[in-house]
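Appendix B, example 12.
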Amino acid sequence: MSKNVEYEKPIEYDMEPLYTLQVNLNSRTKQLNIWVDIVLGYFRCHRIYELSTDAFYDLQLFNNTKIRRRLNRDFITIIMEELLSLDYASWSNRDKSKLLVYWRTPKQWARIIYEYITKSGMIGTVCTLYEIREADELEGEEFFQLDKNIYMQALAILEGEKLAKVYGGSSQSDVGIKFFEK
């Protein structure tokens, strides 16, 4: 997690009604959409992909000292459930104690990765996972050092669309990928 970058919160973050679960369905929907955007923006800014549920509940993001408001645990659970229902998160373990958060969905990552591969002239080339995820020349690309689980989900989508073939190795570091034209 990057600690030097300050997340710029939207103006709604300092509005007291945001911290009380709204009764009116339309208001609650808008409120939850705002919280989803805040959480995803925060995770994106700090490049957080996975978090234990305990750490999620303890995020300072849910404690606004400026207006002295804090979300309660039940409300934070509702936000987690909303992230899950919108496919912006999934459980990364069986006991549901770790949440994998997608500030971009795996399908969006697949599109971004494929655009880069196309732009870089790598169609038809077999690459290692390292070459297309961690290599120095990728620094500055949004998917640089993307969580391996999310990256593999994006590759599975490309494979399902017949735009890539993933060749398994004995570990994720041994994985080879060949990309195909649309």
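Strands lie at 50-52, 63-64, 69-70, 89-91, 98-101, 126-128, 164-167, 176-179. Residues 53 and 97 are 5 Å apart (CA to CA).
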